[in-house]
Amino acid sequence: MTLTIAETKHQLARTPHMLRGLVGALPGAWLEVTEGPGTWSPMRVLRHMSWCEIDDWIPRARVILEHQDRVAFTAFDRDGGEARYAGWTGSAMLDEFARLRAANLQTLDDLHMGDQHLDLPGTHPQLGPVTMRQLLSTWVCHDFAHITQISRTLARQYRDAVGPWREFLSVLKPEA
Predict the structure, then answer these.
(1) How many domains would you assign to the chain?
(2) In 3-state terms, what secondary structure has residue 110?
(3) Which residue in 101, 3, 7 sits closest to 51, CA to CA?
(4) Nearest to 105, CA basis, from 57, 49, 155
(5) What are the tens digits of pLDDT across the range 56-75?
(6) Dihedrals φ, ψ of 26, to 5°?
(7) What is the pLDDT of residues 97-138, one digit of tens each?
(8) Residue 71 · residue 121 · CB < 8 Å
(9) pLDDT tens digits, residue range 79-99?
(10) Is this prediction's pTM over 0.90?
(11) Could you list the residue range(s) of the whole structural domain that residue 62 is in?
């Protein structure tokens, strides 16, 4: 599949709806479940994804458009959302993410990027050379990764309850 700006925006626009469908009606306790020590709850994922909307994707796209690979991206604080959104409810986080994503999709429109911009070079502080195409592809994949993470975390709360069917449910296996 070849990435286009239009396809990227289409995929990114779906994520707030998918997240709301996954966790929007859950009781608060379900938003705090994890897969075990050192793993993230659905709420922590929502905080992280919202923080990415502020401090990751669009700022990096702007660096590529304005400076290409002459200026490296600023390092991203994966945990920045924890402090910013401490105490927020699940509903408020879903609303915030939807608001931030809508604003970022509007910014993508306002940047007037076309497919000709996809091969512009950038510099990641740890990974080195990257392109706009890779940045935008990663944004979409990042959404899918966290949607999968939330789904897996929720499913694993039923690990023991499913009994012998566990062997047929890949989401409950350690390598999933």
Answers:
(1) 1
(2) helix
(3) 101
(4) 57
(5) 999 999 999 999 999 999 99
(6) -75, 145
(7) 999 999 999 999 999 999 899 999 999 999 999 999 999 999
(8) no
(9) 999 999 999 999 999 999 999
(10) yes
(11) 5-172
**DSSP state for residue 3 in the 8-state scheme:** -
Q: Does residue 176 carry a pLDDT above 80?
A: no
Three-state DSSP state, 168 = helix
- pLDDT the model gives residue 39: 95
Q: Which residues of 154-163 are buried (b: 16+ CB within 10 A; e: fewer)?
A: bbbeeeeeee
| pLDDT higher than threshold 90 for residue 175 | no
What is the rounded CA–CA span in Å between residue 149 and residue 72? 29
Residues 74 and 125 sit within 8 Å (Cβ to Cβ)? yes
CATH number at residue 95: 1.20.120.450
Q: What are phi and psi of 72, to 5 degrees?
A: -75, 150
> In b/e form, how buried is each residue of 115-139, taking b as 16+ CB within 10 angstroms?
eebbebebbbeeeeebbbbbbbbbb
Number of neighbouring beta carbons within 10 Å of residue 39: 13
Question: Within its chain, how far is the Cα of 103 from the centroid?
Answer: 15
Chain position carrying tokens 């959404």: 143
